[in-house]
Design the sequence.
């Protein structure tokens, strides 16, 4: 099963022009701020439309100029840099938001399965005790885990992580690195991780590309 | 003396409902979509707040009068005459108060980080669901401010209402026009009572809104 992307998109200062494919593991896109990394992620997820190119997720063509599957149907999990947890919903409602949008959720039996899976994920991520709390009342490390749980619980075909550790303090980062390394092995979802930190690249990359001014400098 | 109070409440409530629907619709379309001539639409929406109410009333009279394009259409097609009826009070109040609703809702929508809507989409939500589950609840304090201010403005509408609906006792006489009439005819007691009703009512609305807003702001 292969994930492939070829993306061309004109930005204000430069144009993004990248092409890469990988089958499993974690692809780390490393580069300084403003290198066009998030644009690549947004084009893969469908949040932005490339000027031209092709995006294949797990063998399914989702974009090629003629085809453009909307973001809600691409089955990608996206962890935003600021986590984007809905402040008006409890942790539990944040985590189950995605599964409630699934067609299977309308079926009573499937619904129970999905909710049980959400409980399992929350337990795995150690956030069950935060269920009834709101995102504004939990720590940065906890927010990160909730956001990751929310992105994973829908069982996406591809996980997109946009600087997932950048908002954490040094001490929390160390703990979260260990947790993420363990999740990475357990979950086995093909993942694209964006970072500017070489250490994160060292820790998690199965494949790695360096981006500068919108292009791949090194693989 | 009760009739103007009842009519004012009825007019303000209906005008606020229409202003809410229109305000939310235009605020969403003009902040989230690429609409041609956006600044022209926006100027038209805000114009009733800048123009003197008597001018707004005059323009509405031209539009809804028997020989006006809309007035003639309504009369010919449905046999309905708008001018000098309580419906005219609603139209005047709605048009004059709409800019307040629009401005508040627009500011509220703009204050919500767009990433929340994007996150909702990556989690399988369509635009409609993302709007109702994420954007609208997060913008709610601003929207409620808009509703309260619109209601208060609609309750206090005078100039445009007088032009379009007149001051017919028991039919189109609202609190502000009743106060004007009471003062003009030397009924000071009546004017005092209505002024007291309006002042207490407005105070309670703003006081209640502020208390609610303090409780309802979400921490991010």
Sequence:
């Amino acid at each position: 099963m292969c994930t492939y992307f070829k993306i061309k998109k004109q930005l204000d200062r430069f144009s993004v022009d990248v092409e890469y494919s990988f089958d499993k593991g974690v692809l780390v896109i490393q580069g300084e701020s403003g290198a066009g990394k998030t644009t690549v992620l947004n084009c893969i997820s469908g949040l932005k439309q490339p000027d031209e190119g092709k995006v294949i997720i797990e063998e399914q063509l989702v974009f090629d100029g003629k085809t453009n599957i909307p973001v809600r149907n691409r089955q990608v999990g996206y962890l935003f840099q600021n986590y984007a947890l809905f402040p008006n919903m409890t942790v539990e409602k944040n985590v189950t938001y995605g599964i409630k949008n699934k067609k299977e959720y309308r079926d009573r039996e499937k619904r129970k399965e999905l909710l049980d899976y959400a409980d399992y994920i929350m337990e795995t991520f150690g956030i069950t005790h935060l269920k009834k709390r709101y995102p504004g009342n939990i720590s940065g490390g906890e927010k990160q885990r909730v956001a990751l749980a929310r992105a994973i619980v829908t069982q996406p075909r591809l996980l997109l992580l946009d600087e997932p550790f950048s908002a954490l303090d040094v001490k929390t980062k160390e703990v979260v690195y260990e947790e993420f390394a363990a999740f990475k092995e357990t979950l086995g979802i093909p993942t694209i991780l964006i970072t500017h930190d070489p250490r994160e690249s060292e820790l998690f990359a199965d494949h790695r590309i360096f981006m500068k001014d919108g292009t791949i400098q090194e693989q | 003396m009760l009739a103007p109070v009842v009519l004012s409440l009825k007019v303000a409530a209906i005008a606020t409902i229409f202003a809410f629907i229109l305000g939310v619709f235009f605020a969403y379309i003009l902040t989230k979509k690429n609409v041609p001539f956006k600044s022209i639409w926006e100027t038209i929406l805000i114009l009733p707040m800048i123009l003197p109410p008597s001018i707004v009333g005059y323009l509405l009279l031209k539009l809804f009068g028997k020989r006006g394009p809309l007035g003639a259409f309504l009369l010919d097609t449905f046999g309905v005459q708008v001018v000098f009826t309580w419906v005219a009070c609603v139209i005047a109040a709605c048009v004059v108060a709409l800019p307040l609703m629009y401005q508040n809702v627009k500011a509220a929508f703009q204050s919500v980080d767009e990433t929340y809507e994007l996150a909702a989409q990556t989690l399988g939500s369509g635009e409609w669901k993302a709007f109702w589950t994420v954007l609208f609840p997060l913008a709610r304090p601003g929207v409620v401010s808009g509703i309260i201010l619109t209601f208060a403005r609609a309750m206090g509408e005078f100039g445009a209402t007088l032009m379009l609906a007149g001051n017919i006792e028991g039919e189109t006489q609202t609190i502000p026009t009743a106060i004007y009439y009471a003062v003009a005819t030397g009924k000071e007691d009546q004017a005092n009572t209505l002024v007291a009703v309006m002042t207490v009512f407005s105070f309670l609305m703003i006081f209640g809104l502020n208390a609610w807003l303090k409780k309802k702001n979400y921490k991010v």
Observations:
- The CA atoms of residues 45 and 71 of chain A lie 6 Å apart.
